From TrEMBL:
GO terms for molecular function: DNA binding. The lineage of its organism: Bacteria, Bacillati, Actinomycetota, Actinomycetes, Micrococcales. Residues 15-69 form the HTH lacI-type domain. Residues 1-29 are annotated as: Disordered. This is LacI family DNA-binding transcriptional regulator. The keyword Transcription regulation applies. It comes from Cellulomonas edaphi. Keywords: DNA-binding, Transcription, Transcription regulation. It holds the Pfam family LacI. It comes from the Bacteria.
Length: 345
């Protein structure tokens, strides 16, 4: 039951900034600066204001605070993908988890911005109009132009994944060495004894799809093996299944497949099973990402680790450093890939 006030009772009084200043023994402007970031405030005054805020139960007016600091205390996680993809792909859940953990010791909140295909201009207007203090961009496609647009804006930003625009220099980003990862996955199939190795590559307009395919080709070239068995997917289960059907029809002699994402691998493995192919007896399979689905496929999937949460945490830390005016590295942060061996290869 909600408590109600009697007619002779006055509503509780909300503490004011003036009362905080009086209790702390400082001026109103000093109290305001202490509450809004501690700029030009002595340690003693800061401690007094903090104590007064706690004693009085003072809650800053967020709107007034934004006017003073020009900050929203929020950052955007920008995902240029359709809604259904963002809500169903565990990659994005891992990214959100990692980014949120990087902000655990701050008051900054994460706003999810789904930049649907064809809506890049709308997203850029939102970012530039001061609704957020900065942005982390993940799952960037060439056509969304977010890398070049954000570089010329005043919006602090970090990309998860290598930006694609060749003319863009200086974009801050975090990534995995996807070329090395594609090579590592393919070498695992070669070492197993596979002689006809195909790939289900990722999208041709994303750096992850491009780089993992380069790694596959490099490993096959080093082994003197053909690299013509290529089909493409979009990192979804459905596209992996469709690509596997295409591969079996066009290249019935394949005995190994490097698949550029675990979700595509899950879809492909179902098709291989329906076609009567034993995994790994007839066709060995290696995926990429090491998300939860990799351990639950039949058989469990050998895959390359992409440390999604760690990448997002690193991106969040870099963005926080920018917002705090701290020196930030110009060079990208690149994680090294690692192979996790399971029964599929």
């Amino acid at each position: 039951m909600n408590p109600t006030l009697r007619q002779d009772e006055a509503p509780p009084v909300t503490p004011t900034l003036e009362q905080v200043a009086e209790r702390a023994g400082v001026s109103r402007s000093t109290a305001s600066r202490a509450i809004n970031g501690g700029l030009r405030v002595s340690p003693e005054a800061q401690a007094s204001v903090d104590a007064a805020v706690a004693e009085l139960g003072y809650t800053p007016n967020r709107a007034a605070r934004s006017l003073v600091t020009k900050r929203t205390d929020s950052i955007a996680l920008v995902v240029p993908e359709p809604d259904e993809r963002v809500l169903s792909d565990p990659f994005f859940a891992g990214t959100l988890n990692g980014l949120s953990s990087s902000l655990a010791d701050s008051d900054i909140q994460v706003v999810l911005v789904i930049a649907r295909p064809g809506e890049s201009d709308r997203t850029l207007r939102y970012l530039r109009n001061g609704h957020v203090d900065g942005a982390v961009v993940v799952s960037h496609h060439r056509s969304d132009d977010l890398d070049s647009a954000l570089l010329t804006s005043r919006v602090p930003n970090v990309f998860v994944g290598r930006p694609l625009s060749t003319e863009v220099v200086g974009v801050n980003y975090v990534d995995t060495d996807n070329v090395a990862g594609g090579t590592l996955a393919t070498q695992a199939l070669i070492e197993r004894g596979c002689r006809r190795i195909a790939t289900i590559a990722g999208p041709e307009d994303m750096s992850a799809g491009i780089d993992r395919l380069i790694g596959w080709r490099a490993a096959l070239a080093s082994a003197g093996m053909p690299d013509d068995a290529v089909v493409y997917g979009d990192f979804t289960i459905a596209s992996g299944a469709a690509a596997a059907r295409d591969l079996l029809a066009r290249h019935p002699d394949i005995d190994g497949i490097f698949i550029a994402s675990d979700l595509m691998a899950a879809g492909a493995m179902g098709v291989l099973a329906e076609a009567g192919k034993d995994i790994p007896g007839d066709i060995a399979v290696v995926g990429y990402d090491n998300i939860g689905v990799a351990a639950s496929t039949t058989p469990p999937l050998t895959t390359v680790v992409q440390p999604v949460a760690a990448m997002a945490r690193a991106a969040g830390a870099r963005l926080l450093a920018q917002l705090q005016g701290m020196p930030t590295p110009v060079e990208p942060l690149i994680f090294e890939p690692e192979l996790v061996r399971r029964a599929s290869a």
